[in-house]
Specification:
The chain is an alpha+beta fold. The chain is built from 3 helices and 24 strands. It has 3 domains: about 100 residues, conserved putative lor/sdh protein from methanococcus maripaludis s2 fold; about 90 residues, Elongation Factor Tu (Ef-tu), domain 3; about 160 residues, Helix Hairpins (Orthogonal Bundle).
Length: about 425
């Protein structure tokens, strides 16, 4: 029993001694590491050039320099008056269709709707004349009442006591009611005119004669004489469903428009007239320029996120740009030429003071700076540095090997950023 206890005590001493030796070894290693460690600086030169501040956004092309020529007529293509490459004007004949029974019924129904809309507009205009006459009559009655001696003093001033009588107010209210009816009728006329325009456009779409909707060059003609056009199948969009076929496309010199959505943080910085650069996923080798045309400051909210549409018109007309293509824009807020700038990662601050760390004669120094314009990656320096100064953009510490060589996460990196190692 005694031998067992002695063995346990001996084992415990060995473990304690081993632990102490291990701790000493770790301390020695740490001390050795500190003596042979190096700080590795990632640096960049202060440069002079152009700095551009911009806001990025994504969106799509709204409309380009093309418009489709569509028809809701059904039947057989009887005659084609144009070919690809022809220059046409608004209203020029494109093709003629021999309507089938369904096409004839649809065209007749559209014509009937047009005539009905025209009669409605005519009736609204006749009513407007009647209401106008009634308004003038009641105005004259009220005016004559207001200037007689009962309701007007001898010096021409209103007699407010007598004008409080019901007779005076009835005449005034009759005139005001007649005036309100006449003004309301103008809205009825506008609505009737819009309905007439819509009915006429529908009739044109069902007409056997297909015409050009605008001036331009005709392309993408997809029908031939003798071809059957059947509009039984419905063509659906996000808001409408129509039975129509595309027969050709017209290109013109209009410059494409694109819509981009901005966040609530960026939208206060955007104003009409600002320049922008635009890139398209489908034309990756080109960058286009444009100008902000409209800024929607009301915005739309979806799933708790509000976005604000901005319309940009491109400066050039390119045939490859088509509606609904995905696009990205950089809207230029400001730019400066011939200024000093450093990578934004070099800028640090303490309270309200900005500063950078610079290397001078191999030693790190802190220099207070004043900053100006900021881009995505660079910041303008207005005071505190000069061109060619070397600023620290980052650093890390690593141990050296016995032969003095060290491993740096920045080793082998090219570009203008350099790595300097200063022994400690």
């Amino acid at each position: 029993m005694k031998k067992i206890k002695d063995f346990a005590k001996s084992k415990k001493r060995i473990l304690i001694i081993f632990g102490i030796v291990l701790i000493i070894a770790v301390i020695v290693k740490l001390v050795f590491f500190n003596k042979n460690s190096q700080i590795q600086y990632q640096t960049a030169k202060v440069e002079k050039g152009t700095i551009v501040s911009s806001v990025s956004a994504s969106g799509q092309i709204l409309n380009a320099n093309t418009i489709s020529i569509n028809t809701q007529a059904s039947g057989t293509v009887k005659q084609i008056y144009v070919k690809d490459g022809d220059v046409v004007q608004n209203g020029d004949k494109i093709l003629e269709i021999s309507l089938d029974l369904k096409g004839t019924q649809k065209n007749s129904s559209a014509w009937s709707n047009y005539l009905s809309a025209k009669n409605t507009l005519d009736s609204a205009q006749v009513s407007s004349y009647t209401l106008q006459s009634d308004m003038f009559t009641k105005w004259e009655t009220f005016y004559n009442l207001a200037i007689n001696s009962t309701y007007q003093n001898s010096d021409g001033s209103p007699n407010y006591i007598n004008r409080a009588l019901p007779e005076f107010h009835i005449a005034e209210d009759d005139w005001l009611a007649a005036e309100a009816k006449y003004k309301n009728q103008q809205s009825v006329i506008s609505q009737a005119q819009a309905a007439l325009n819509s009915a006429w456009l529908t009739y044109q779409l069902t007409s056997p004669t297909v015409t050009a909707p605008m001036d331009g060059t005709l392309t993408n003609l997809v029908v031939v004489e003798g071809m059957v056009i059947n509009n039984d199948q419905s063509t659906s969009t996000s808001t409408t469903s129509t039975n129509q076929s595309q027969v050709a496309v017209i290109q013109n010199d209009n410059k494409p428009l694109a819509s981009f959505n901005l966040s609530e943080i960026d939208i206060p910085k955007i104003n009409p007239g600002q320049k922008a650069t635009i890139t398209l996923d489908s034309i990756s080798d080109k960058t286009f320029t444009g100008t902000v045309k409209t800024v929607d400051r009301i915005g739309t909210t979806s799933s708790g996120v509000t976005t604000y549409p901005v319309i940009i018109q491109l400066d050039t007309n390119v045939a490859q740009i088509l509606p609904n293509m995905a696009a990205s824009a950089n809207i230029i807020l400001d730019s400066k030429n011939d200024v000093l700038y450093v990578p934004s990662t070099a800028i640090q601050n303490s309270g309200n003071q900005n500063y950078v760390r610079v290397l001078k004669n191999g030693k790190e120094q802190q220099v207070n700076v004043e900053i100006g314009l900021t881009s995505d990656t660079e910041t303008e320096i207005t005071s505190g540095l000069k061109e060619g100064d070397e600023v620290i953009t980052g650093n890390t510490t690593s141990a050296t090997t016995t032969n003095g060589n060290s491993t740096s996460p920045f080793s082998g990196l090219g570009g203008r950023n350099n790595v300097m190692r200063i022994g400690r």
